[in-house]
Amino acid sequence: MPGIGVRYDLTTREHRRMSVVAHRDGARTVSAYRDDDPDACALSVRLTAGESAALVDALLPDHHSPNVLVTNELGLLAERIELSSTSYWNGRVLGDTRMRTETGASIVAVLRRAGAIPSPAPDFRLAGGDTLIVIGTREGVEAAAAILGRE
User: Fold this and answer.
1) In terms of CATH architecture, what is 68-148?
2) pTM for the predicted model, two decimal places
């Protein structure tokens, strides 16, 4: 698109047509087209360079992990951390990890074959194969994963 920028077209797996125009000034225009008339635009949104960067981060975050459950603009995230059978913490009580004191992150639930244990108490006994739901900052959750991964 001479003088404007570059247009990228794509068709989704559901046969929806979309386009993104990358403007020379850093802005982007994201458009989606109607199913019944692929030449008719159903939605067009112009994004500033900053808004485009935020959308890219939401679509493909650097910290993406299939274990991340939720992340928000406050810098908090919820992540699943699996406790291995060889973990130092296998058979020990949750309070011994000193998780909140050491990392600022909280273990808000434990998933076990028998079901979910919400808000486990400090005397809750961990077991290999448990999946712990941890909430905190990125740094806190990473520190929690390092502690829980200890063998």
Assistant:
1) 2-Layer Sandwich (3.30)
2) 0.55
